[in-house]
Automatic annotation (TrEMBL):
Protein name per UniProt: SHSP domain-containing protein
Keyword Glycoprotein: no
Pfam family, one: HSP20
Top-level lineage group: Eukaryota
Keywords (A to Z) from UniProt: Stress response
All residue ranges annotated as the SHSP domain in the record: 40-154
Gene source species: Castanea mollissima (Chinese chestnut)
Species classification: Eukaryota, Viridiplantae, Streptophyta, Embryophyta, Tracheophyta
Family: Belongs to the small heat shock protein (HSP20) family.
């Protein structure tokens, strides 16, 4: 796993299967000057998702703490694009509440990944447990090249 110059995980800039748009200013926002209504959508806009490949499947894991499975959608678009989306609702505020700190994010997120040709998109499975979404995309079995011996005459 590559690290960026600024410490966190590097974006999928060079990954041909990722449809994410790289934002060179990510992490440099001036949140203090942004009104709370605008912060809602930007704070939760990019859910962090890991993608690993095993001999049998492509496995996606997303940390979505506080979300219920009913608030998350997993879809396959155009036959080969895995789309994971959802929304964390804003907490209900009472008129007399006085907030000292707001760090938890809310709003919508959407991530899209172009799946390789060997993905069995009709057999995708998803599971949500303890705030972690796991999506398993089985892979086609790799066919071993058939080797045929040729008799040498002469």
């Amino acid at each position: 796993m590559a690290l960026s110059l600024f410490g966190g995980r590097r974006s999928n800039v060079f990954d041909p299967f990722s449809l994410d748009i790289w934002d060179p200013f990510e992490g440099f926002s001036t949140v203090a000057n942004v009104p709370p209504s605008a912060r809602e959508t930007t704070a939760f806009a990019t859910a962090r998702i890991d993608w690993k490949e095993t001999p049998e499947a492509h496995i996606f894991k997303a940390d979505l703490p506080g979300l219920k499975k009913e608030e998350v959608k997993v879809e396959v678009e155009d036959g080969n694009v895995l789309q994971i989306s959802g929304e964390r609702s804003k907490e209900h505020e009472e008129k007399n509440d006085k907030w000292h700190r707001v760090e938890r994010s809310c709003g919508k997120f959407l991530r899209r990944f172009r799946l390789p040709e060997n993905a069995k998109v009709e057999q995708v499975k998803a599971n949500m447990e303890n705030g972690v979404l796991t999506v398993i995309v089985p892979k086609e079995e790799q066919k071993k090249p058939e080797v045929k011996s040729i008799e040498i005459s002469g």
